[in-house]
Amino acid sequence: MNIIKSLISMDPLIGTVALLLLGIFFLAIYTLTKVKTIAILKKSINYLNQTIQELDHEAKLIIKSDVELKLYQEESEDKLNKLTLLKNLILSSLRILDKEQLFAQINEKIINDLGFKRGAIINLNDQEVKLNIGFQEQEMKLIQRAFLAKRNILQTTPLLSAELETYKELSSSLHLQDFLIAPVKARENVYAIFIVTGLLIPREIKRAEKEIFAIICMYLGQCLDNIDLFEELYRAKDDLEKKVKERTNELVKSLREIETISKLKSDFISSVSHELRTPLTSVKGFSSLLVEEKFGKLPPQAKDRLETIDKNVNKLVDMVNILLDISRIESGKIEVKISPSDITKLIKSVVDFLSPQIQSRQLKLALDVPGSLAVYMDKDLIERVLINLINNAIKFTPPGGMITVGCKKETRNALISISDTGCGIEKNDLEKVFQEFFRVDNPVNRQLQGSGLGLSLVKRIIDTHKEKIWVESEAGKGTTFRFTLKLSENV
Ligand code: ADP
């Protein structure tokens, strides 16, 4: 500045030019720096522009995804609603076993939930309208007529939808813009048609809506099948019950007849036995006296014959007595007095009573009984059972054999057993031994006396006690008879 000042003081013109040149110089430097700055700024602007474009692109993508997400969410919600609708329909119709009630489950709410304003179900067999929501009578007739002719389409097509080219003609003949129609099949045959129309929100019908509608129609078909099956089952059960009733009545009738016949038989045996007893007693008396030669000495041949007569008369008396007892027990003429009593004591007394026979037959006897055991029994009748069974054991066991009389306490019963090591009974004859007059046809029995009535009487006595008797035996090895009696707490 001092140089310029001295130049101006020397020559003002030169000084001014110098000042101007200096100014131009500084301006040039300043302009250069600004150009540089502008270039840098331009670069930055370009970069920013690029970034903005990228951001814009990203933003567009985000908006697109957001819209898609919303759509997807709406679709999911819609599907969920439809599934809930199906679930509710299934729950409400689970226990329904009547076709009318089943169709009554479809109401306006369900039609709306399916996305439509109007709906109808028509039975194609009798043209009965099962459901009508929003259809005029005229429209209904139109649909009925259209589908009577097109029944076979429904047989093979699970869903008819308005927007499909194939059904455009149907759509115009029914005067309906949009619709879904599906068959409700029972046992594979079209039973009814289900139609929904008039979308709540005018738009294209979604795939999920079509699927759920077809599923509902299939489900209704399933329900119809179940109802049919149930009705068949119910009818079969009813028929069966009727038949069982009829047969039971027939059986009761037969039983009554058998009871009457059985009573007649018992009465007959009872009166015959009774009538026979008096003359037999007299015959027996005289034959005994004759055998004992109370009327004078008999020639040996006559005595032999009389002894045979006396033996047979004894046999006859025994038979008549047992027959009389059996018929009395059967007809309830014998009063059965069941009361608590000691079975061990009874067994011991019967064994004592029969011990002379046991000894004379050279048999061994073992007793396997508790100290005492209280049971419910008619003492006199059970005594006869024991006498009969032990007597048989004595009869059918060869000398040197063994008889065991046992009594065991079980949970609710006493189990009484009479075993022997005698001739035994063939398997085929086992179940017959309790029948009247049955005697096993074997060499042992042919030599022995017997009526074949003893076990028959035994069985009846045990039956009157409502107890069980059975026999186990092996031919040649021995036999065991067992019977039960109810335990009592006190004697
Ligand atoms: P009975 O002894 O008078 O012939 P039962 O009614 O007492 O008549 O017996 C029927 C048949 O059962 C007998 O004839 C005999 O063949 C067979 N039976 C009964 N008890 C025994 C036994 N302990 N061992 C082998 N056979 C027996």
How does this structure look, described?
By secondary structure, the protein is of the alpha+beta class. It folds into four domains: 2-89; 99-205, Beta-Lactamase, CATH 3.30.450; 234-334, Signal transduction histidine kinase, dimerisation/phosphotransfer (DHp) domain (Helix Hairpins, Orthogonal Bundle); 337-486, Heat Shock Protein 90, CATH 3.30.565. Helix content is 60%, strand content 16%. A five-stranded antiparallel β-sheet has the order 2-1-5-4-3, with helices on both faces. The N and C termini lie far apart (155 Å). The model has no long low-confidence stretch (mean pLDDT 90). Bound molecules: adenosine-5'-diphosphate. Residues 392-393, 396, 420, 422-425, 433, 438-440, 445, 450-456, 479 line the site of adenosine-5'-diphosphate (ADP).
